[in-house]
Amino acid sequence: MTDMKKKNLEYYFWPWGLVAVIVLFVLALLISLFASTMNRSDLVTEYYYAEGIEYQAKMEVMEASLLPENAISLRYDSGQELVHIQFPARADSAPVEGTIKFFRPSQATLDREFSVNPDSSGLQSISTSELIRGNWRIQVSWTLSGQEFYSEQSIVIE
Question: Which end of the chain is more exposed for a tag (fewer CB within 10 A), N or C?
Fold first, then answer.
């Protein structure tokens, strides 16, 4: 008789196991669906397709910016909470114009943009005290003597 009870328990166990596997699978799907809808997916830029088409022209400007006579120097001073950007010195002392964009890859609403306005030695300092900690990409585009330049560098604000 005990053999029969044991056989009946084995017979009734596998349907419960099957139901448990299906319920766990459905729960896992619901949890992953909930997690994926809660994850924000900010685009890098609103007009990513149009900017993608212009990428080759941007690459040529970036190559010109890498030449030693055109390169900028960018460094972050965590003690003073400043980003120092040194623009190249030119013999013709032409004015430098352009924009400096602090781009936050994880949250587009935190992006900041500044005008290029270096002092007489070509140095511009920007305070980072109002920026939140984390990874920032600094995109500098400037025009000097009618020629366009572009440089990009990542920093971690502490």
Answer: N
- Residue 9: domain span: 1-39
Q: Assign 68 a pLDDT band (cuts: 50, 70, 90).
A: confident
CA atoms of 115 and 100, how far apart (whole Å):
6
Alpha carbon separation from 73 to 19, 23, 85, 94, 122 (Å, rounded):
64, 58, 6, 18, 10
Distance from C-alpha of 101 to C-alpha of 148, rounded to nearest angstrom: 16
Q: Are residues 26 and 90 both part of a single domain? A: no
CB 116 within 8 A of CB 142: yes
Residues in the chain: 158
Q: Phi, psi at residue 120, to the nearest 5°?
A: -65, -25
CB count in 10 Å sphere of residue 64: 14
- Structural domain count, the chain: 2
In the 8-state DSSP scheme, what is residue 72? -
